[in-house]
Amino acid sequence: MRAFVRITTALLRDRKAATAVEYGFIVALIILAMMVSLNALGDVTTAMWNNVSTKVQAAH
């Protein structure tokens, strides 16, 4: 447990590690935004194709 605290403290004091953590958070937020937008796009696309399918079936 002491080793974990020592390593964590060293990482918090190290400016390079702090910068790496900040970049990691930025990348995580970008990925989260991409996932949310792709999910919304998937919902819209599914609704569009369901509409097309309904109209094709009604045309027969």
UniProtKB/TrEMBL annotation:
UniProt keyword terms in alphabetical order? Membrane, Transmembrane, Transmembrane helix
Tell me where the transmembrane regions lie: 20-41
Q: Among its keywords, does the record have Membrane?
A: yes
Pfam families in UniProt? Flp_Fap (PF04964)
Source organism superkingdom: Bacteria
Q: State the name under which the record lists this protein.
A: Pilus assembly protein
